[in-house]
Amino acid sequence: MTDRAVKLGQVVERLADEGLLGAERAGEAFALVERLGDVQPWYVRAMVGFGAWLASLLLIGFVAGFGLAVGGSTVLGLVLIAGAVYVRRQPQVSGNDFAVQSTLAVSLAGQALFAWGLASFMPGDEFEAGCVIVMVVSGALFIVFPDRIHRVLMVLIATSALVALVYTLELNGLVPFLGPAFAAAFVALDVRRPALIARGYGQLARPLANGVMLSAFGCLLLSTIYLLPELGGDFRFYPRPWVSTLLLGALLLYVGGRTFPALLGEDTGTPPLVWVLLLAVIAAAWAAPGLLLALVVVMLGAAAGHLGVAAVGIAFFAIFLAAYFYGIEVTLLVKSVTLIASGVVILVARWLLLRVLGATHRG
Amino acid sequence: MSSSGSPAAWGSVYDLAAALQFDEHSYRRAVELAELEPDRAAWLRYVDRFLAAVATALIVAGIASFFAWNWADLHRFAKFGLIETGIVAAVAIAWRFGLESVAGRAALFAAAFLVGVLLALFGQVYQTGADPYGLFVAWAILILPWVLIGRQAGLWLLFVLLIGLALILYWIQVLHPPTGWWQLAQLLGPLVWLGTTVMDWQLATLLFALNAAAIVAWELAAARGAAWLRGRLFPRLVGLVALYTVLAPTLVLIFAAAADHRAGLSVVSPLLLALALAASLWFYQYRRLDLLMLTMSLFAGILVIMALAVRHLFRDFGSLLFLAALLIGLVAGAAFWLRRVSQRAEAAA
User: Fold this and answer.
1) Residues 6 or more apart in contact with residue A162 via CB below 8 angstroms
2) Which residues in chain A touch residue B22, judged by CB atoms under 8 angstroms apart?
């Protein structure tokens, strides 16, 4: 299954030997090791999540068939959500795939019915209030529904509602700030991970981090969308993408500043060369901020040994590159210069880094 | 206990720490003991591979953008000179660093990609009027020697992709120009349009055969122990495409069975799908464990069962409840079975 030589049981044994686990917690830890062996890989969880989403659509169709009144769908939505939360919180449900799936589907169906009822109550000009309610409900469900997939979905729904709210209020100037803000939240959660676990927020921090990371990806992909003036009028879908470049550049410098000293040795600060290289990458990617986000995510994933995050960062890099290539906001010449300049800078950076790190490594 | 536990992957260590609310020191120590954070040698490998791949992707995409821009002020010989210099330089780098090095592999891939840009430039400058399939055939033939000596999945992926594109374009532009309403898909972009070409069962069958043959060849060669064939990217991506070529027409066939929209569809696609699923579930369970391939196969099967159920069992809104329960049951059953397969494999290991 994997080439990783160290087993979780060995880690627990060593922690117990070193006195980092009390006698009672050691027993609990060994019991957990057995359970954690059952954790499904991401693609199985993705299949489960997709199946739940599809099942929720069928459930919504079933309920809609009764021709409920507006108030009825709101109440039924709330009842379904409450029922799903109650069942999912029962300890014995966690090990039952069917029950886990069902509660996920019922909760999503309940939320859709609730949102539908809410939208019907409100006149068209209260869409903003609807977005705020969706954010509040998603936030509450994020906390009370103890399921990782559900929590990631709640973060995505809340951030999508926030983006919709920004566009509805015609605050398009804020859009370039959203992606970097989500990315900053992801970095903060990564940096504060040990402290969050120690304070008992570990179960919430991981899906929150995954959710804001995916939200940042989504926001940056918006920067590649271009509306023809004939269609959009004065509407600017993603004004001033360089704002995102600057903010993500600052984030890249921060992450680089944390990563390289650990890499070069505890007493060594980040060498000026690294700063110069990072600044050169930022300058080269001026028109393509998504490239910087991909680098931030990959760097964090690699530094933490979290290969899943690193792989997602690489996948986003490929997707952003393809979207940027097909976008028509800038000319092909500008794209060409941006892409080649970024590539050459990264190539030079690689050469220099390998020389510096290689020399340090040998030394 | 210690030897039989699950691997100390990032997620397992995190879940353990979160469940037991480790203090900061204990969590950092657990990460250290699990050897999760890369040491300098591992970092060097990351920097070497990742940055080389990223830079190569950016530069070749930039070069493609540059020639697509078709700068009128640049003389055609200058254009040819630029692109040919790029190819020669890439080959020289591959030769200098060797095909086993990351730089050499990235350079050889860049050279293979730039051959296509050169051929596209040739068509752009001289307006040859040749059918586009010719470009992909010529591209595939010209890079074949590099593919054979390159020993890298990326080059083989590019080669299979080019053959597939050539096949699709030859079929559509020369043999059987399509006339159905699928052509409207062109409005949704080239990728969507390419996806709908499998609605012609004969073309879908040929594409399935091409991709299936590529996987079989890869797995057979991998079983003989070649180190560079250990990676799973090639069989997984090609497997996904192979599955799609028979799954999409099967699903459309199920829903269009009573409508008059099945002109290009045939029962051959569902038969091939059944064959592919059976082979995949057997091979990737017993011969070469790959949970991702098993998941893809199971999910394809679930989609077909659900399509059949919707097609034949949907009577009124009440039946949607049964369909939802069926879907949940199928997915939960699949997840349960995958867990069992994984546990069995770990116990055997």
Assistant:
1) A131, A135, A178
2) 20, 194, 197-198
